[in-house]
């Protein structure tokens, strides 16, 4: 099987021309659901799927599927699917998403040209709004496809201007009516850029992901008392910022300790607000948004527990009131052993150095892993940069990882 | 000498009617420099000064002076002055400022009615924009009168809408041309509400302030590195919020330690901003605004030094970059011994329990203490509340403190 590097490069560069942005360095794009760039990106992708002889369907939230049903296969067998997404963050890069979608299409074309005769249908998929750039809900399309979010809830989501997903999809002509259920797929494989430096550090051509970390988000509130910063003696204060500072350090320490046994464990207070936030008033309230991740759900639970312990201590020692709300909890996802085995064998067959690793970022594959056997491959990212016009993967590296993707799917679809 | 409680009450309540605000609890007002309320407040005050036979002058920044030159005095002798301010913070109270200005006028009337024959002229003063509510510069009028800020700089100050102090004063007819130099005063005494609970706690009728704390403001910046909150391991982070949290606790600890020897010492991080302030990004930069006060300038210096030490340690231990800019340093002010003695004697003569204390809030008197002998008296504040419609001092308490004020000035002006 031969991957046509030039054809893949042309597909990615022509796709990148839609929604392209000015950048001092690199090549960037903005493709948000329902924009004119999104319409163009989708229409071109459908054209290319059809040019490869695939049967295209679009579901209610604009997910696009192209099925290859060669004579060798049992058309009623559960298909093997692969793909990714085509949307971007604002001023994002040109590989995050498109490499996996056009890589899957290139994989089909490579199989066709090599005379591969799969026993199962092969499905190429592009999921809507993976980035959450328009509606703030990441992995939106795959959440609906896998039943995690209802179609009606999704279509009623509103962007910052009050425009719904339904309106956006209708405007660009991608409010489809086809029903495609990934739970009926035999397996799923996604190729994505790493967005990290482990592959380049190890000089590996492909990453074989064994798990995707779960994410827990919490909102923490620490409430003290607003007082005059001059006339309130230190011993009479209930300073919410000082208390919250102890909490931030407790969270950091707990995450560092748990990371000694589970390296993927991280805990971050990334967002915070102070009230009244005036130089001469003792802070009355601090609210923090936490992001807690690990490949072990239990570690995440322990980290949240450590947060509760810290807050209880602050209530006792500092007279503040506190609250913690764990408003999101996405458990970690394990990739299927047979997908891992197929990917390892594919890399070996194509003489590509493969590195086993976990993904700390969310991907559509996390949703798919809940309903079918799933695999996730990474291509190297230069300097680990993503979500930026400086995001880059060399064309040869794109082709190498796409070759492993195609071989993995060929193998999974062969029986 | 008899203070007319009813007349004082009427003066304060009629003054409070200008700029009055709706409040669920209490009585509030908003009087910002140059507003229609400010015009009314000023015009009424001038009327009342003239009704008492005082000779009114208005200087270039709208400070209002009313001089009583009775036959008993040497008109060329250095006058004894007293007063306060008439502006308010937005939605402020009705005593903060007006008690001292109308209290001084009531003091003159009481002296006149009691046949007091001072050896020196007696001056009543109301300073412009003590609160900084319009231009963000506190004690503006007294800063100009005492030469700390030039007239031209002050008149060129712009409010949030780009309107200058000059425009505001011209509009309300208080851009005066009289020159009054407090450095030529023999002494100055201000009566103000306490804005604290020490007087009510001690059941004292008047506070005799011995010093006004100095204020140092610093801006601190802690710069780490923005990283993905999922894919950046704990040990690879340079988290600006975690580092800033250590700093906040260091500042708190240092202030607590210094407060064991200098009770007035306080250090507050009241305002902070986080960049980029996103839940899933390790914080790249935190900026904090510090407020450091004490009655000893050396303690303030030591507290700033402790801040520098903390930041240097964070640079070494956490790999962050830091900076600290001490952009304001107003030294503490001592009240003159002869003013303190006159106030103590006045309280004793009127059988009022007096409490010696310091002021942790800034007052015009801090500027006046730099150019003449100054004294500051406090009246009790219910629950210590100020800058709020809930600010309250009972009318009898107003009269009691005004009696001590009048007696203090009578004594100072007697030779």
Secondary structure topology:
Two copies of one chain form a homodimer.
Chain A: H1 5-16, E1 20-21, E2 28-29, H2 36-51, E3 55-58, E4 64-68, E5 80-85, H3 98-113, E6 122-127, H4 140-145, H5 151-155, H6 165-172, E7 187-193, H7 198-202, E8 206-212, E9 214-223, E10 227-228, H8 240-259, E11 266-275, E12 281-282, E13 285-294, H9 297-318, E14 321-330, E15 333-334, H10 337-349, E16 354-359, H11 364-368, E17 373-379, H12 395-412
Parallel strand pairs in A: 5-6, 5-7, 7-17, 8-16
Antiparallel strand pairs in A: 1-2, 3-4, 4-6, 8-15, 8-17, 9-13, 9-14, 10-12, 11-13
Helix pairs in contact in A: 1-3, 1-12, 3-12, 8-9, 10-12
Output the structural class of chain A: alpha+beta
Number of helices of chain A: 12
Oligomer: homodimer
Arithmetic mean pLDDT of chain A: 96
State the CATH topology of the largest domain in chain A: Aminopeptidase
CATH architecture of the largest domain in chain A: 3-Layer(aba) Sandwich
Order of helices and strands of chain A: HEEHEEEHEHHHEHEEEHEEEHEEHEHEH
Largest interface: A-B, 52 and 52 residues
The separation of the N and C termini of chain A measures 18 Å
Taking pLDDT < 50 over at least 5 consecutive residues as the criterion, the unreliable ranges of chain A are: none
Beta-sheet strand percentage of chain A? 15-25%
The whole-angstrom Rg of chain A is 24 Å
Number of strands of chain A: 17
Domain Peptidase M20 dimerisation (chains A, B): 214-313
GO molecular function, one term (chains A, B): hydrolase activity, acting on carbon-nitrogen (but not peptide) bonds, in linear amidines
Keywords (chains A, B): Hydrolase
InterPro entries (chains A, B): Amidase_Cbmase, Bact_exopeptidase_dim_dom, Peptidase_M20, Peptidase_M20_dimer
């Amino acid at each position: 099987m031969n991957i046509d590097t030039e054809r893949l490069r042309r597909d990615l560069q022509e796709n990148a021309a839609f929604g392209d942005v000015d950048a001092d360095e690199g090549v960037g794009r903005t493709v948000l659901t329902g924009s004119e760039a999104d319409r163009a990106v989708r229409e071109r992708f459908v054209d290319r799927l059809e040019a490869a002889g695939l049967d295209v369907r679009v579901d209610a939230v604009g997910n696009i599927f192209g099925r290859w049903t060669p004579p060798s296969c049992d058309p009623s067998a559960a298909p093997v699917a692969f793909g990714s997404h085509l949307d971007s963050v604002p001023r994002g890069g040109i590989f995050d998403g498109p490499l996996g979608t056009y890589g899957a299409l290139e994989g089909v074309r490579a199989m066709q040209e090599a005379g591969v005769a799969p026993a199962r249908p092969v499905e190429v998929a592009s999921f809507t709004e993976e980035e959450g750039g328009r509606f703030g809900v990441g992995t939106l399309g795959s959440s609906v496809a896998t039943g995690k979010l209802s179609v009606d809830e999704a279509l009623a989501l509103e962007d910052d201007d009050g425009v719904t997903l339904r309106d956006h999809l209708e405007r660009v002509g991608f409010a489809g009516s086809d029903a495609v259920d990934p739970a009926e797929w035999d397996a799923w494989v996604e190729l994505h850029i790493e967005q990290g430096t482990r592959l380049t550090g190890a000089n590996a051509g492909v990453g074989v992901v064994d798990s995707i970390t779960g994410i827990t988000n919490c909102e923490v509130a620490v409430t003290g008392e607003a007082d005059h910063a001059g006339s309130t003696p230190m011993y009479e204060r209930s300073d919410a910022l000082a208390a919250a500072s102890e909490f931030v350090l407790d969270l950091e320490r707990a995450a560092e300790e748990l990371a000694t046994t589970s390296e993927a464990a991280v805990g971050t207070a990334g967002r915070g607000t102070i009230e009244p936030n005036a130089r001469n008033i003792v802070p009355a309230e601090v609210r923090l948004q936490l992001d807690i991740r690990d490949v072990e759900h239990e570690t995440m639970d322990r980290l949240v527990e450590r947060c509760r312990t810290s807050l209880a201590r602050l209530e006792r020692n500092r007279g503040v009131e506190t609250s913690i709300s764990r408003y999101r909890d996405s458990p970690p996802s394990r990739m299927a052993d047979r997908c891992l085995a197929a990917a390892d064998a594919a890399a070996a067959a194509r003489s590509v150095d493969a590195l086993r690793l976990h993904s700390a970022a969310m991907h559509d594959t996390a949703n798919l892993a809940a309903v079918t056997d799933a695999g996730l491959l990474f291509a190297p990212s230069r300097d680990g940069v993503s979500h930026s016009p400086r995001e880059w993967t060399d064309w040869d590296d794109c082709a190498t990882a796409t070759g492993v993707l195609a071989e993995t799917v060929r193998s999974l679809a062969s029986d």
